[in-house]
Fold this sequence. Notes:
The protein is of the alpha/beta class. It has 11 helices and 8 strands. The termini are far apart. Adenosine-5'-triphosphate binds next to helix 1, strand 7 and helix 8.
Amino acid sequence: xxxxxxxxxxxxxxxxxxxxxxxxxxLANDFNxxxxxxxxxxxxxxxxxxxxxxxxxxxxxxxxxxxxxxxxAIYEHAYGFHIMPASVDALxxxxxxxxxxxxxxxxxxxxxxxxxSPALNDEMLAVIISSDELLVVSTPDHPTLLCTMNAVxxxxxxxxxINGIILNKVLGKKYExxxxxxxxxxxxxxxxxxxxxxxxxxGLAEYKPMVLFKPTCSLSKGFRKLAGNLIDEEYEDKGLxxxxxxxxxxxxxxSLRLIGLGD
Length: 263
Ligand SMILES: Nc1ncnc2c1ncn2[C@@H]1O[C@H](COP(=O)(O)OP(=O)(O)OP(=O)(O)O)[C@@H](O)[C@H]1O
Ligand SMILES: [Mg+2]
């Protein structure tokens, strides 16, 4: 029986879709898991656009409308996972039927990841009630923390287990909220701390999750560590020498960027 993990936030742009695509790529490639990504951001879906799956005729909406069968709407991605994209035409569907769909699919996969809408409505509720556990994505600032607090509250009210908060786009600046502050205000543990890395935009332009685009950077390591945590497995590190080499390469890249020569 697969594990269904919903990725939520009540704020747009914090990194939900990025997290779904990177966890999917890591679980499939680093941990050899059978993974399905579903774009349940019903009205503004863009998981497909992160991964180069664009304009799919059969998708989550057509399945829920019984216009295509489930198998037709699942695409085997070259990155090793399966994906069910959604229609960009904002077709009207019963969002809450997602739960029945997930029930049918869960024994075919090790992990199903659900991307979600940032709007506090039935779209997000559908993801909450369809999931075994939730990852709440936040950034370390006051406005987002307030939204995170509400997302945690809602998930608890609905009785879905919160695996933890993922702090994303962390700059390591003094003015950012600390892990402790976030945990005490949002009343959930922080289980991931992912740095801001502008190079993710270049990967996005090539439809490539960071774990495949820059596999050795800190952000990718963060995604991989988190992927392992979700399935209670530890990612086997490549050892001191290789890590040292990566560190030096990353450091050289960082220095080149600082003097305007890197990408
Ligand atoms: N750690 C990071 N460092 C730098 N940029 C990031 C990071 N994570 C995500 N981004 C960028 O932030 C933007 C928003 O990310 P994403 O689309 O994943 O957010 P979202 O929460 O899914 O948004 P929405 O609620 O609108 O669906 C994207 O351009 C993405 O590449
Ligand atoms: Mg998104």
